[in-house]
Amino acid sequence: MKQMLLESEKAEAAERAFARLEETAAFIMAERILMYHSLPDELSTHGFLRKWGSRKHFYLPRVNGVNLDILPYEESRLELGAFHIEEPTGNDTVSADDIELVIVPAVAFDRKGNRLGRGKGFYDRLLSETKATKIGIAYEFQIVDEIPVEPHDVAMDIVISPDSCTVVRSKK
Questions:
Q1: Could you give the CA distance from residue 146 to residue 55 in angstroms, rounded to a whole number?
Q2: What CA–CA distances, in Å, run from 73 to 34, 37, 162?
Q3: Distance of alpha carbon 152 from alpha carbon 22, whole angstroms
């Protein structure tokens, strides 16, 4: 389905989805945000990172063995890393405890906030270590009725698409 979208449709979908994210209290209140640096088949984060980069502190994950390190985002410090994803360079990692909001990609989400990733468990291991609000973001067609859940899977608090924002679990 994603392969059938025109570049203009992808850009418009990303713009609408990230506009919904900007309206959430979780985003408005967060200063330290872990994002993802999008692959071609994901909603593009590049424009969003540039737009907010001087006003929020963004971090990106970097693959380290079977885990993800968290490093500050600076466009000039990105290089192609594991799985052909642009990752931050350097040694200035931060703890998952320092992150207030995590924006997570997926192959699919369900309406209960469950996430189907790419099968390696990187995000589940990272998300299990943080109390940060977890927001999944995806195209509309990536949101399905139900995804099989494993005991180690970590669900999202909010799921956002270009057409909807679903609060699954509200933070008390």
A1: 36
A2: 9, 9, 24
A3: 29
Residue found by looking up tokens 């590049």 in the block: 46
Which residue type sits at 73?
Answer: Y
- Regarding pTM above 0.90, the answer is yes
Closest by CA to 86, choosing from 73, 98, 97, is 73
The percent helix, strand, coil of the chain (3-state, each to 5) is 30, 25, 45
Local structure of 105: helix, strand or coil: coil
pLDDT at position 3: 64
Structure token digits, residue 147: 């995804």
User: How far is C-alpha 79 from the geometric centre of its chain's CA atoms?
Assistant: 19
Element (H, E) at 113: none
Give the DSSP letter string of 66-85: TEEEEEE--GGGEEE-GGG-
Beta bridge partners of 60: 71
Assess whether pLDDT exceeds 90 at residue 66. no
Distance between CA atoms of residues 125 and 138, nearest Å: 20
Task: State the number of CA atoms in the 13 A half-sphere of 93 facing the CB.
Answer: 13
